[in-house]
Amino acid sequence: MFLIFRLIKLGLIIGLIYVLYKVLWKGESLFKSKKSKKHPQAAIEKMKRDPVCGTFLPANQAIKYTISGETHYFCSQECKQDFQSGTESKSSANGGV
């Protein structure tokens, strides 16, 4: 019986040493999640800004519209239509001069 308590005590001491090693030496958190370690900057670089309302959204979810070789990204059809109506009025004003 005495041997069992000594083994349990030894196991607890080894466990405590391991935890202290992980926290103090390696700098790891005890409550660290196992989420992806991707750099947040990578996600920001793929975000596009809607020129009408200013909303940022992922490029793969945006509505794309290319005019004069330049691609614009929109959050909704309404913003795309507002942009198109604005560019049409500018081009008609410039074309009439």
Provide structural commentary.
The protein has 97 residues and is an alpha+beta fold. The chain has 2 domains: 1-28; 46-97, no CATH class. The protein contains 3 helices and 4 strands. The strands form 2 sheets. The chain has a two-stranded antiparallel sheet with strand order 1-2. A two-stranded antiparallel sheet has the order 3-4. It is rod-shaped.
Provide keyphrases for this structure.
two-stranded antiparallel ribbon; 97 residues; two-stranded antiparallel sheet; alpha+beta
Short note summarizing the structure:
The chain contains three helices and four strands, in the order ααββββα.
Share of helix among residues?
40-55%
Low-pLDDT segments, ≥5 res: none
**DSSP strand tally:** 4
Strand content: 15-25%
Number of helices: 3
Order of helices and strands: HHEEEEH
Shape: rod-shaped
The tally of structural domains comes to 2
**Which radius of gyration do the C-alpha atoms yield?**
29 Å
| Average pLDDT rating | 79
Summarize the biggest pleated sheet: 2 strands, antiparallel
Q: How do the helices and strands line up, and which of them pair or pack?
A:
Blueprint: H1 2-25, H2 40-45, E1 47-49, E2 56-58, E3 63-67, E4 70-74, H3 77-95
Antiparallel strand pairs: 1-2, 3-4
